[in-house]
Amino acid sequence: MANTLSTAGAARRAAPATGAPASTRARRDTNNRLGWALVTPAVAVLLALTIFPAAYLLYASFRRFNLMQPEAAQFVGLDNYRNIVANADLRHSLWVTILFVVVAVAIEFALGLGLALLLAKQSRANTIASTILILPLAVTPVVSALIWRELFNPNFGWVNYYLRRVGIMEEPIAWLSQPGTAWFALISLDVWQWTPFVALILMAGLQGIPPEPKEAAAVDGAQGWRLFWDVVFPMLRPFAAIAILLRTLEAFKTFGTIRVLTGGGPGISTEIINLTIYRTALQDFSVGAAAALGISFLVFLSIVVPQMLRVLARNSDLVEG
Amino acid sequence: MTTSVRNQFGSVILRGLLWVWIALTLVPLVWMFTTSVKPEGMAQTIPPTWIFPPTLDHYRGVLEGESVSAFAPLLLHSAVVALGSTALALVLGLMAAYALARVRFAGKQKLAMWILSTLMFPPVVSVVPVFIMAGRLDIIDRYPTLIVPYAAFNLPIVIWTLRSSIRQVPEEIEDAALIDGASRFEIIWRIILPLSAPGIATAGILSMLLAWNEFLFALTLTRSEVKTAPIGINEFTGMFGTQWGSLTAAATTIVLPVVLMALLLRRHLIEGLTLGAVK
User: Fold this and answer.
1) Where is the ABC transmembrane type-1 domain positioned along the sequence (chain B) (predicted)?
2) So what's the pLDDT on residue B3?
């Protein structure tokens, strides 16, 4: 990645924008037509997979609608939403979703930052290490969940065997049968798979930082943590922001790994909202109830995510035209 | 003096922890691969068997088998879906990215942010209406029913990555071509496409990865005709009471192509991780 963190943005801003001499209205109209003609196919596909389904769900959320008896569907007003507020299981599912995302992303960021700092200096050993780090990113999540299921198997799993072997625990644990340990298995899977994502982004950021400010600060006597917080981290901030944003968005979409590893269990202890929506709509066939959940989830995301985008925009040239 | 000794001691410990993490990163993959080449009956021994005569029987069974466990067709379905959706996303994405990078039109800025914001849209919210509609239109278990949604999921990534790489193509080249009478499509095809090839490679890898690994839509919208590999492998456990040899062999065949691609094109992959938002 080019080390033009600040300079490229500035240079691009300074350069005149394309078609800038739109002095005549005709020229502006041509550009409008050309622009929209080029984006329309992509926008149509995006609309079909976002706004259209959302509108359909909004409609369905006001109805009692069983997929097996679509003809019996009827308008029920806000009943489906009232049920969300009244139902402790549904509140639990929203809560564990947030808990999962926050805990997983926080751990991944902390570990990823540590890895990036250790690996930023270029050397042969570091190249080997960062090559190995790429591997989990590409592994099919369902496959990693199946691997985890067997590694955490109480009877034949490597986790129980080797943890006892090195003396960390005495008795074998049925990891996936208790909520606490099931969560541990799930989070460890997510951390294994996605910490490298954060680390590689931050590494790219660190390698792009010019050495001069650091040297100047070192001459002034800055050391260790001070040097990091006052000099390095501010320059790393856009990379940190985008790593956290993208990881958070993806974590909110988690489905396959949890479905395969714990199936939401034991009980509903690890059932994040994606699994609840899927089960309600496509296994219990209560489309109306699932739709209300889906719309609530969307509303929640569209409050949280723009806030995050704003923070990101302040820290990078993301919205620069 | 003492601080520098302490610093050195600290850095040795940190390097040690780094390599412990790297080793742990490899453990699940080592388990998968060794289990896939262990002879029948050695897969689940405790303590784990490390010395064994390697065998390719599980791979043969999985790739040549005529039974339900036949895996080759599923890999083919996955490949068609991944390549098809990537091609679609790249074509639509390149056009849109060019407009967003180079054409000055009303609403451009808002449109770019809206496209990015669709990244937050949870697939589980769109899968239910898509499933109902696909059922009515009778297009469940067909290629386009997976290809179009996958392209849609990848479009924000593709558009943002390409927009940033198109911006790096010098505008003078384009201006010269415009003066010479080239049309916009000629410019995209002859100038932008070759000069933003690295960005296209980046966007292509990211969208292949996502499509190859996708689970939710494939689970909901396929039955047998276009069932993809991740769905097939998940069924291994239920149907035969889990034969770990076959399962891990199949898992290796799913993971190997994408892992190799990621390693070979690692520079592009890493650049793509930030969507070109920070340079």
Assistant:
1) 75-265
2) 63
- Answer yes or no: do A138 and B261 touch at CB < 8 A: yes
Contacts of A45 in chain B (CB under 8 A): 92, 148, 151-152, 155
Over range A103-123, report the average pLDDT: 93
Residues of A in contact with B209 (CB under 8 A): 137-138
Does B250 have pLDDT greater than 80?
yes
Lowest mean pLDDT among A107-121, A168-182, B236-250: B236-250
Sequential DSSP letters for B187-242: HIIIIIHHHTHHHHHHHHHHHHHHHHH--HHHHHH-SSTT--HHHHHHHHHHHTT-
B278 and A54: CB-CB below 8 Å? no
Task: Note the CATH number of domain B63-272.
Answer: 1.10.3720.10
Nearest chain A alpha carbon to B135? A67
Question: Which alpha helices (DSSP H) does chain B contain, by range?
Answer: 2-36, 57-64, 72-102, 108-117, 123-137, 143-167, 171-179, 184-187, 193-195, 197-213, 216-221, 229-239, 244-264, 266-272
Mean pLDDT calculated for residue range B207-219: 95
Give me the residues of A, 263-282, that contact B with CB < 8 A: 274, 277-278, 281-282
Is the bond preceding A234 in cis, omega lying within 30 degrees of 0? no
The model's confidence at residue A105, banded by pLDDT at 50, 70 and 90, is very high
Domain boundaries in chain B?
Answer: 63-272
Query: Is 50 exceeded by the pLDDT of residue A2?
Result: no
The residue ranges of DSSP E strands in chain A, in sequence order, are: 63-64, 74-75
Q: What is the largest CA-CA distance in chain B?
A: 77
> What CATH number has the domain spanning A88-315?
1.10.3720.10
* Interfacial B residues in 246-265 facing A (CB < 8 Å): 247, 251, 254-255, 258-259, 261-263
Q: Over range B49-72, report the average pLDDT.
A: 80
Domain borders along chain A are 88-315
Q: Which chain A residue is nearest to residue B252, measuring alpha carbons?
A: A143
Q: In this predicted structure, which of A32-41, A88-97, B4-13, B112-121 has the lowest mean pLDDT? A: B4-13
pTM of the model: 0.88
- CA neighbor of A276 nearest in space, from A295, A298, A302, A255: A255
A150 touches chain B (CB under 8 A): yes
* pLDDT score recorded for residue A237: 87
Distance CA B259, CA B261 (A): 5
Across the interface, do A8 and B279 touch by the CB < 8 Å criterion?
yes
